[in-house]
Amino acid sequence: MDARRVRRAVAAAVVAAAASAAVVLSVAAGTAAAGGTPSVSLPATPLLGVVRATGAAAGSTSPALKSFGSCRWLADYFRTEVSSREELCSIWGCYKRGVRVRPNVIAATSTNVQVEGVDEPDIIKGNGSVQYLVSKGHFYVLAVRGRGAEAVRVGSVKVGQAKALLADGSAMLVIGTPSRVNDGPDAGWTVTRLTRVDVSTLEAPVITSTVDVQGRIVASRSIGGTARLVIKTNIWLALSKKVQPLDNLTAVAEFVAALPGEAWAPTYTLRRFPVGGGEPTVTTAPLASCARTYRPRVFEGWVITTVLALPVDEVAYAGDFGSAAELPGGVAVVSGAGVIYASRKAVYVTSERGGTSSKPQTDVHAFSIKGPSAVYVASTNLAGRLLNQWAFYQRRDILFVATTLSPRSRVASSSTLSALKVQGRTFTTVGTVPRIGVGEAITAVRYLGDLAFVVTFRDVDPLYAIDLRDPSRMVTLGALKVPGFSRYLHPLAPGLLLGLGVSVESRRLAKASLFRVPSAATVDDGSRLGELATWTPPPIPGRPRAYSSAWQVGNDHRAFLYLPARRLIIAPMDVYNRMGRRTEATLLRVKPDGTGFSLVARITHKVANSRSGRITRAVVIDGRYLWTIAPDGVEVRDLDTLLVTSRAEL
């Protein structure tokens, strides 16, 4: 049999297997004759095609999601997409000349403490008496001595893959790094572990429970002691472990058709460890019930995103996410998870469509978090791409979103600031500011009260100020063009805005700028935007010349600290030269009149050129003692003298 006949036979077998499953389910939907024998060809319209057509027939283009209602419909949603060899190849990959080709997946995420009252995970948490830190797979307790002059490691416990933590009193929730599981009930799944650590006794922190979730925790927030977790689960990556070989597409189709409905719903496993030791009690249940899992009107891939609540200080409440009265369970959507934004009342999950195309689109799904469990509220679709979570801003009942259309095009690219309001299951547009930075893309956004500041860039850095007081008639107050661009904006005082970014005049060096901007008091005075001062790192005598440098805050704005009483900016900076990378904690003081910078210090740890010496965080205790944190340990300095007063190795 020649190759063409083989391909036809395989395709026919795949279609037949998928059709069998579709027909069985279509009987329940009344789309096939009762008692009939399943056909070897697909129904004229797949089952979910009928469901989708219902919405289309009504003339609706609403992006609102619909609940599956049951796991059987959830399974059918995915099964009907496996209807051809092309579909199977796009999911599992097909062999070409012995090389396995898989879809190109590019993912990026950025997290940050953005909203007052909404805590964010970080590598260090604490107060003036004790600091808690995760590093290199361990949870550490550092006692604060001498009003902050001394850091003393008093306790630790091993927490594998520890990445960040949330704190609530003496309870710590450690968020792990996702890893692929090769055996056991989670075989094939990517699993992330959450670990609760009780630090009631500082010298002996104790792990009281763990929660393993199937998927990656792409974002988390803590509001009032409750962690709101956004979990992204790739269904197909998990199931690929269970069927081999993957190039046998007939076997793949038969495997998919035979999977029960419950297999498509990701789960969690909770382990509680009894006081004094012993075997843990184990509970396993879905992250979200199928009835609380929603689908878009068009198929968006094989990813389920769950918004889940987990009290930081009361892990006992997590015993049964699905039925506990205090915690009704998660809510999920069949959608990817891109940019995540959280206010005190809602979580917004985005999913970008169009990939690297010149005209990307972004779906936005809103979930209320006023109760113990998130509740799906509404969805909308926006033209363009969001930079990061700073593109969002919720003020009262209005959601502001900044997007860039065709970010790679010098001609078609421009940005839009939209004001949206929930109406039913979708959003209505209250007002827009279109064509911001034509030919450019957004590099930074900051909202301050009734003002928005947007930075776009292609060759120069236009900074735009926009009045948001009337969302239906937003007004651009001015634009300032300067060389380079800002990647992070931070208010230092009313009318004074700091921009940390990149200078592109010669080499790409880290740049700090001070901008005069409108404030709440001057917004009606017609005050003009202006750049008051700039700073770039000068060469250090005796060290190789830097060919580039970058603020860490450009990718993670938790790597930033400002002390108003000292007018002191503290921000880690990566410097690159012929010797490699060196990390410095840069201390800049702002002049009293806000018209300039003075360099205070460029601090490094002992092994600044190595990964273990890369400073990523800074904490100031008692307004005087600076703690700089790197994987190798913590160094404490007196800000008045800059002398090292203590070191704690990790």
Descriptive overview:
This protein is mainly beta and 650 residues long. Among the domains are: 3-101, no CATH class; 384-483, Lipocalin (Beta Barrel), CATH 2.40.128. The protein is built from six helices and 44 strands. Strands 8, 9, 10, 11, 12, 15 and 16 form a seven-stranded antiparallel beta sheet that branches. Strands 1-17-19-18-14-13 form a six-stranded mixed beta sheet. Strands 36, 37, 38, 39 and 40 form a five-stranded antiparallel beta sheet that branches. A hairpin with a 5-residue loop joins strand 33 and strand 34 (509-516). Helix 1 packs antiparallel against helix 3. The radius of gyration is 27 Å and the shape is globular. The N and C termini lie far apart (65 Å).
CATH topological fold name of one domain? Lipocalin
The profile of the biggest β sheet is:
7 strands, antiparallel
User: How much is the average pLDDT?
Assistant: 81
> What is the second-level CATH architecture of one domain?
Beta Barrel
Number of H- or I-type helical stretches: 6
* Strand portion: over 45%
Q: State the secondary-structure class.
A: mainly beta
Fraction of residues in H or I helices: 10-25%
Distance between the termini: 65 Å
Q: Note poorly predicted spans.
A: 1-60, 94-112, 315-328
Write the layout of secondary structure elements.
Layout: H1 3-28, H2 47-57, E1 66-67, H3 71-79, H4 85-92, E2 94-96, E3 99-101, E4 124-126, E5 130-135, E6 138-145, E7 150-158, E8 162-168, E9 171-176, E10 179-180, E11 190-198, E12 206-214, E13 216-223, E14 226-234, H5 235-239, H6 249-258, E15 267-272, E16 281-286, E17 293-295, E18 303-311, E19 331-334, E20 340-342, E21 346-353, E22 361-368, E23 375-383, E24 392-395, E25 398-405, E26 414-423, E27 426-436, E28 441-448, E29 451-457, E30 460-467, E31 475-483, E32 485-493, E33 496-503, E34 509-516, E35 530-535, E36 548-551, E37 561-563, E38 568-577, E39 580-590, E40 597-603, E41 617-621, E42 625-630, E43 633-638, E44 644-649
Parallel strand pairs: 17-19
Antiparallel strand pairs: 1-17, 2-3, 4-5, 5-6, 6-7, 8-9, 9-11, 10-11, 11-12, 12-15, 13-14, 14-18, 15-16, 18-19, 20-21, 21-22, 22-23, 24-25, 25-26, 26-27, 28-29, 29-30, 30-31, 32-33, 33-34, 34-35, 36-38, 37-38, 38-39, 39-40, 41-42, 42-43, 43-44
Helix pairs in contact: 1-3, 1-6
